[in-house]
Backbone:
């Protein structure tokens, strides 16, 4: 059985009369990259604040490293690194000086600053004022800050927020490296499935404070089939052929056919089927449904 | 246990000090006493004879100090504490840094008190700066305008004693201003509150019950008891007690607050 690093038990939370979280039970396995997905305002940040003790849960129903956060805040935080929404940096100081402030508070040796700068690839810019940094550099510096105490668990709230595609890719690579090379468990939130699905091993999906799904990416695939777009010279024949193989396809443009598949491995079979019958296939690609479709699927699946 | 707590505080104050480098915070701490002494020396250089004509039992040097202390306690100090309180926490508010700081393995009390003690440290720097600047101003007038009879060698403790007392009394308003600046993200709130209460104090300073305002205690202590040779008085104890109560109460009030 996998050890869980984070566990919430029927977690509910309200700001006054406004319910923000409702019966959220999360289990984050050790060594996982756990994606926490939901649209803005779905309760992701509130959950993260509760996990870090920034907001206090009225009940003792949040455990991190098997200890309740309400009673063991300090000992838990010693093993956690966090990045919450926008970077918390002092713009008039250099990147190095910013790291040094947190280093002093954490009482880690100063060589650790060089190590984390190297990990996030900011060594060359370390002595520039943070006000001159791009948003991507600020996010990386914040991540470096969360790595200073060499935490076992990283809790990252929308670390790709505001980054350009290259910045998103860099951040994804960085998280993969930290998980793979340093064995860190990473809890990462996002409002975009496409941003995190490539790296996560486990996923929880939250909407309007309720957990819609929790499981591995393979398990998600079962409730959230892929959408396949085929570019072909003979769409009508392709649809007939696909129907004979029990696929329901429809033509969406003059040379375009679309259908749903349960597993990406079925793509090869579809391709062989069409090409084998002499149909030219110009393109074959899977597309994820958008988040709204995903929520609809999950809600229907729950019913 | 005590060692660990002291360690948290020392590191916290050190971090506050490093954080404030290259900001207005240190400049303000030095500029305000310099400005106060500068205004006083200008007034005496230009119009010293007339000012000294109204002195009663004071020596010219004591009168020079008294004149400076009235300006310091009635106007400069309350304004300075109000503005400085807003500046010391504005760094965190503007950088959205509270959530980062509170997610570090630090006791919450150490976060509050490190910053409060750093603020008190700035006030202490200004207090020492005021003693130094006033002393230098006195010697400058001694050489430049000997006819005024200002001789700082005549009573060296009059200045130190009264300025130290204003420091101890001023700790009360320091704790109040700090709580407001820590509690409210909008820096206008502590700054405006402090300035408003200070201005009201100037208006009502002659009222029989004006002593209820902690922001006026520094002025009242100078106005009524500047000649006293003791190092403490009722205002000093009131200031220290207010500091202790508001500092602890302010921490407890913020302890269970959600961190934005």
Residues:
């Amino acid at each position: 059985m996998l050890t869980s690093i984070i566990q919430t038990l029927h977690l509910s939370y309200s700001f006054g009369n406004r319910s923000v979280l409702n019966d959220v039970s999360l289990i984050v396995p050790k060594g996982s990259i756990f994606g926490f997905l939901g649209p803005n305002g779905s309760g992701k940040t509130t959950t993260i604040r509760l996990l870090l003790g920034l907001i206090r849960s009225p009940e003792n129903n949040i455990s991190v490293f098997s200890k309740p956060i309400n009673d063991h805040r300090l000992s838990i935080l010693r093993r956690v690194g966090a990045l919450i929404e926008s970077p918390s940096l002092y713009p008039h100081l250099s990147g190095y000086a910013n790291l040094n402030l947190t280093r002093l508070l954490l009482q880690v040796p100063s060589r650790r600053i060089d190590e984390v700068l190297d990990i996030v690839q900011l060594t060359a810019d370390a002595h520039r004022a943070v006000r001159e940094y791009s948003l991507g550099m600020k996010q990386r510096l914040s991540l470096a800050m969360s790595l200073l105490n060499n935490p076992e668990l990283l809790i990252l709230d929308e670390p790709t927020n505001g980054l350009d595609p290259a910045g998103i890719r860099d951040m994804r690579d960085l998280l993969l490296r930290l998980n793979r090379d340093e064995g860190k468990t990473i809890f990462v939130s996002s409002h975009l499935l496409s941003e995190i699905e490539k790296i996560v091993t486990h996923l929880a999906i939250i909407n309007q404070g309720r957990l819609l799904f929790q499981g591995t990416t393979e398990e998600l695939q079962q409730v959230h089939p892929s959408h396949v777009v085929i570019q072909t010279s003979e769409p009508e024949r392709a649809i007939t052929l696909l129907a004979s193989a029990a696929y329901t396809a429809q033509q969406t443009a003059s040379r375009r056919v679309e259908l749903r598949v349960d597993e990406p491995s079925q793509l090869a079979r579809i391709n062989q089927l069409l090409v084998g019958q002499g149909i030219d296939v110009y393109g074959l690609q899977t597309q994820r449904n958008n988040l709204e479709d995903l929520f609809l699927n999950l809600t229907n699946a729950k019913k | 246990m005590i060692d660990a707590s002291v360690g948290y505080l020392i590191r916290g104050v050190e971090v506050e000090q490093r954080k404030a480098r290259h900001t207005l915070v240190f400049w303000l701490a030095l500029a305000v006493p310099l400005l106060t002494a500068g205004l006083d020396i200008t007034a005496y250089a230009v119009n010293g004879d007339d000012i000294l004509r109204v002195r009663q039992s004071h020596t010219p040097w004591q009168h020079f100090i008294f004149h400076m202390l009235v300006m310091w306690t009635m106007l400069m100090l309350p304004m300075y504490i109000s503005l400085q309180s807003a500046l010391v926490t504005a760094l965190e508010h503007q950088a959205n840094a509270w959530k980062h700081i509170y997610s570090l393995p630090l006791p919450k009390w150490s976060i509050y008190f490190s910053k409060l003690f750093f603020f008190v440290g700035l006030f202490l720097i200004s207090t020492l700066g005021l003693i130094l600047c006033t002393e230098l101003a006195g010697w400058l007038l001694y050489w430049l305008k000997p006819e005024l009879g200002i001789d700082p060698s005549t009573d060296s403790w009059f200045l130190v004693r009264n300025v130290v007392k204003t420091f101890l009394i001023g700790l009360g308003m320091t704790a109040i201003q700090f709580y407001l600046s820590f509690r409210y993200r909008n820096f206008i709130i502590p700054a405006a509150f402090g300035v408003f209460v200070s201005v009201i104090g100037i208006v009502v300073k002659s009222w029989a019950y004006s002593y209820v305002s902690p922001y006026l205690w520094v002025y009242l202590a100078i106005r009524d008891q500047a000649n006293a040779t003791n190092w403490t008085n009722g205002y000093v104890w009131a200031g220290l007690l207010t500091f202790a109560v508001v500092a602890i109460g302010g921490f407890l009030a913020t302890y269970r607050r959600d961190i934005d």
About this structure: Chain A is about 35% helix and 25% strand.
